[in-house]
Each structure stands twice: as C-alpha cells, then as structure tokens.
Design a protein that fits this description.
With 378 residues, this protein is of the alpha+beta class. It is built from nine helices and ten strands. A hairpin with a 2-residue loop joins strand 9 and strand 10.
Length: 378
C-alpha cells in the first residue's frame, strides 16, 4: 500500500513551509491552544487567521458556497499537519469554529444560521471565533448529566447554570453550548438541546482557570438569566444529544492532525538533543534505554498518523467515522503524554525550568507539553 501523497499535496506542503518562513520569526513553538493565553499571541494569531483565509487554506475542504475551496480531505489533512509542524497559529478560529461548528451547521443548522455564522469563520474574521461549552462541574465524562437549564419564554430561552473547562471563552464571540431544555425527560440523553450563545450577552460571567503551565486556556462560565433567541436553536429541540454525537465526531477527528505535526517536531528536537548531549563523554542517544524509548515514541506517532489517514480516507468516500474519531482522540492524548514524559526524563532537571526561561531546553516545549497534556486529555 502506498501512503505517499501526490504532487498536488506536496506542492501545498511546500507552500505552507514558505508561508511559515515568511510570516513567523524563528521557531515560535507548539501551535494550538496556547495562543489564547497572552494578548500579544492572540492578536498575532488573528492576523495569521486572516492571511490563511486569504490564501484559501483556512477552510479549504469546505464547499465553495460556504467559503471553502472544495479541496479534497487529503489536502485539508496536509494543510493541518504542516501548519501544526511549522507552529502556525490561528488555524482553528478559537475552539471549534473550523473543527466542528461550521461543519455541523452545514448538516443540521438552519439556512439563516449558515448565512449568519459560517462566512465569518471562513474569512478568518474576529466574529468567527468560537468556544464550546459542554462540561459542567458534575457533567464531565458523564456528558448527558448536564444541568444548565434553558427554559423557553416566548421567542427566547432563559439560561441558568454553570459550565467549566470552556476553552477560549475569554476570546470567543460565540459559544456552541449544550443545555437541558426538558428537565423531566425520561432519559438524561433526552431533553438536551444545542444553542448558539452570544458571548456578549448580559448575565454571562467568565472566570479564568490557569493551568499547571501558567497558561490561561480554560474558563468557568456562569449563566444568570441569559437570554438567547429561539432562532439560535441548532437542529431540533430536545434532540441535541444526537446532533452533538455527530459534532463530537468532527471534533475528535480534528484533534489528531492538529497536534500530530507539533508533536512530531517536538520528538525530532528530543532526538537531536539526545544525539548532541553527552553523559560521561557518550551521547545520550547511545544509551539503549533512551534509544528504545525514543523508538517507542516514534512508532506511536506513526500509528497516530496512520489512524488519521484512515479517517481522512473514509471521509473522502462520504463516510463520517464515529468510532475511529473517538479512538483517535484517546490515542492522541496518550501519544502527547508519552512524548512529554520521555522528553522530561531525557532533559532531566532542565524540565523544571519555566518554559520561557533562557536556560530551558528545546525552547521550553517539553515543559510546556508536560504541563498541558492533563488538560488536553479532558
């Protein structure tokens, strides 16, 4: 079986490399969630999002009528992979804008919603920045146990409740939110609906959650009589569980390609460090224990790549993989954790330094990844 990409995909990869060289100063580290933390990083990511949209890359596999290029899923994969490897920020439009919100609206959103929300995502505009609010203090893994209420009153829903671990809530213009619209439903999976919430609405309080790495990614949301138009209901009322399962399939698939490239680059840095760093006059890479660990990480990373390509291939055939997407999410977390742990073991006490310290090894990426992966695994 031939896993190589064609000339078209390789040309795209080369173009993305050139874009990164021209737009990024030096090696800015791992792209992704961290860009939400500092104001200067966020502003830079917004500028890059706009340029990616102008290149036609941001939503390249979306249909042309929704601002995409109608490109193949394999081209989209190459773009996501290479952008991650190069550390290009601003590729996701917050948390979910590209990965699942836009694609879900194309399937079960209303025509009004598609016209209102999708263009700003595809154009890389600030109004296209999204967050996703599913988890609650008592509804994490038990997703169906959500208690945030949305009570219909005329042409509005009145929301009350609390959300937690809401990535990008402090930056987002809109929120993709799961709520309970029928508290008396026979099964907890029933009575759930999906709403689009304006993050500028009165009654929303955002409290930051700073992670182990000192990075502000997550937030708590408190909803106190927040009014949401009924027109912001996505899909059918009380059928949100079924819509969300489809949306989650998009989400889980988007995660692996997004993190694979950055993880690959970090592993390459670890290998280079082991080759160039000596202990008792012998390179660390000569130590058989270290060699075996690095080989294991490389095998895991290659497995993740093949898993992602399997899903990409199935999507190119019109299939929406659900089981495979869930598998990739879990496996991606494992791969990230193992690379971070192995890197920490190899660089030793340097891993205790602040990631931005001038003495940090591998640009602080190991420390940053190690401190971030518990949150990524949520």
């Amino acid at each position: 079986m031939d896993f190589k990409f064609g000339e078209k995909e390789e040309r795209l990869r080369a173009e993305i490399k050139e874009f990164a060289k021209s737009e990024l100063v030096g090696d800015i580290g791992i792209s992704g969630l961290e860009e939400e933390s500092r104001d200067e990083d966020w502003e830079f990511s917004l500028q890059i999002s706009k340029k990616l949209a102008q290149k036609g890359w941001l939503t390249m596999a979306w249909p042309k009528e929704y601002g995409g290029q109608g490109a193949s899923f394999f081209e989209q994969y190459v773009y996501t992979d290479e952008a991650s490897y190069c550390g290009i920020p601003g590729t996701q439009m917050g948390v979910g804008g590209i990965g699942w919100v836009g694609q879900s609206l194309m399937i079960f959103g209303s025509e009004e919603q598609r016209k209102k929300y999708i263009p700003s995502i595809a154009a890389g505009e600030p109004d296209g920045i999204w967050c996703t609010a599913y988890s609650e203090p008592n509804a994490g893994s038990d997703f169906a146990n959500i208690q945030t209420r949305a009570i219909k009153s005329g042409d509005e829903y009145i929301l009350n409740g609390q959300k937690i671990w809401t990535s990008c809530a402090h930056r987002a213009r809109w929120c993709w939110m799961a709520v309970r619209t029928d508290p008396g439903a026979a099964k907890k999976q029933h009575g759930i609906s999906l709403l689009i919430v304006d993050m500028r609405s009165p009654g929303i309080t955002i409290k930051p959650i700073v992670n182990f790495a000192g990075i502000h990614i997550f937030n708590e949301l408190f909803l106190d009589n927040v009014k949401v138009p009924v027109s912001n209901l996505v899909g059918t009322e009380n059928r949100g569980w079924y819509h969300l399962m489809q949306s989650l399939a998009f989400e889980r698939h988007s995660i692996a390609p997004q993190f694979y490239g950055g993880a690959k680059r970090t592993l390459e840095h670890i290998v280079r460090y082991a080759l160039n760093t000596k202990y008792n006059g012998v390179p660390l890479a000569k130590n058989p224990i270290i060699r075996h660990k690095l080989a294991e990480r490389a095998i895991e990373l290659e497995t993740l790549r093949l898993f992602s390509l399997e899903i990409t291939w199935k999507m190119s055939k019109g299939v929406l993989p659900v089981y495979e997407a869930a598998r990739n999410k879990v496996y991606c977390d494992l791969v990230m954790r193992n690379i971070a742990t192995t890197g920490t073991e190899i660089i030793g006490a340097y891993s205790q330094l602040d990631a931005r310290s001038k003495w940090a090894k591998i640009m602080g990426n190991i420390t940053r990844m190690y401190m971030m992966f518990p949150g990524i695994a949520i």
